[in-house]
Structures are given as C-alpha cells and as structure tokens.
Design goal:
228 residues, seven-stranded parallel beta sheet, 6 helices, 7 strands
Length: 228
C-alpha cells in the first residue's frame, strides 16, 4: 500500500481528531491543521508520522502556512475539509458578521485552501465534510439557517471542482453527515442521542477514501441513520 500524505483541517477535536488517529493507524503521513494544533494528542508510536500545523485557514497567512508545510513534503494525496463552524440561532437574530464567520470557515476556507494546494496534488482525493442539513429536500431544522445554507454551498462547490478537474486524476466527493457524537451536534440538538461516535465515522470516511476514487467523483453522499 502506498503511503499517502493526508491533510486534515479541524484536526484537534471531534471527527477531525478521530480522522488523524485513523490515518496514522493505517500507516499514512498526516498534516493535521487546526488553530490549536498543539493540543492534538496521539499515540507516541505515531509521532513521527504526524505534522501539526497551527493555522487559521480563514486568513491568507494561515493558508500560506499550510501550503508551505505541504510543499516541504512535495505532494498531497488526500485533502479532507473537516473544519466547520456552527451558529444555532433563530434566523432573525443572526447578524451579518456572524453569518460571514460561518461562511468563512465552512465555504471560503475550503475554496481558498484547495486553490492554494492544487499544484501539490498527486492523484488527490478531496473530501468535503458536509451535513445532511445542506442536502436539497432533506429535513431542515430551525436555528440552523446559516449552518445548513453554508453546507449547501459546500456541496455545490464540491461538484464544481469535480467538473472543472474531470480531465485530471483528482477526485472530489462530499460526505453529508448526520448525527455524530460531537460538541457541534450537541449544541444544535441538546439532549438528542447521536447515532455514532467520531471514531466510527472516521473509520467510515477512511474506507470511503480508499474505495471511492475509482468509481465516484462529484458525488454528494448522505451518511446518516437518523433525523437528526
């Protein structure tokens, strides 16, 4: 098995942290990106395969920091846009700055980071971690207008990447997740039990990464057992 170089954003907690552990366990080199990358803890056996990058990817400086680190490695095989931000408020109470913050993390950061890393991609599989709330005709919930609409934009962006780069060896797919036991889910649905753990979802995403590129490109795939 070829050792992949994998970049994961939002890597310090939740699904992102579980993805870091999963890829390390499977023998890959992981570039773990977070504003708090120093907090990422893994088994000491994997330290030599983990590169922590502290960066705010909503800024030009942060994007350049990530790019510079991956340039030192020479290539990128997997890019997982996992960082996300949630605002749980009634539509009428969401300010423009708050809306912009959500879109900066959930849409603009994946857009600009992918642009920056294009020249380093080597048969790269880009996976965007979205939400079933952003899928057309899915069940919607009050208080999530900013979050769900940003994920709908991310879904479309993934499809556009697949179209623009269909003549390359790169693939772009979107996983629209349902309930996972994370802080974000708990904030949006307090007291509601989630259908799986971050580790379980990370295992699914890892297997999807290995199997999807040969048969799927530009797909938005709902991954959920419940609503929510």
């Amino acid at each position: 098995m070829k050792r992949k170089i994998v970049c994961i954003t939002g890597a310090s907690r939740g699904i992102g942290h579980s993805l870091v552990k999963e890829y390390l366990k499977q023998g890959h080199l992981v570039v773990a990106v977070s504003r708090n990358a120093g907090e990422i803890e893994v088994n000491s056996d994997y330290e030599n395969s983990l590169i922590r990058v502290s960066a705010n990817i909503t800024t030009d400086k942060g994007i350049q920091t990530v790019k510079n680190r991956i340039e030192e490695l020479g290539r990128l095989n997997v890019l997982i846009h996992n960082a996300g931000q949630l605002i749980y408020k009634p539509f009428a109470d969401i300010s423009l700055p708050a809306l912009q913050d959500v879109y900066m993390v959930n849409v603009f950061a994946p857009f600009t980071l992918t642009q920056a890393l294009l020249g380093l991609m080597e048969e790269c599989h880009t996976i965007t971690i979205s939400s079933v709330g952003g899928v057309e005709n899915s069940l919607k919930f009050p208080g999530l207008s900013a979050y769900s609409s940003s994920k709908a934009a991310l879904n479309c962006l993934t499809q556009m990447w697949a179209e623009e780069f269909k003549d390359t060896k790169h693939t772009f797919n979107c996983l629209a997740l349902g309930s996972v036991e994370t802080e974000m889910f708990g904030e949006a649905f307090p007291g509601v039990p989630a259908s799986c753990t971050p580790d379980e979802m990370a295992s699914f995403i890892y297997n999807f990464d290995n199997s999807a590129p040969s048969v799927q490109n530009g797909k938005i795939i709902s991954v959920s057992r419940s609503n929510p």
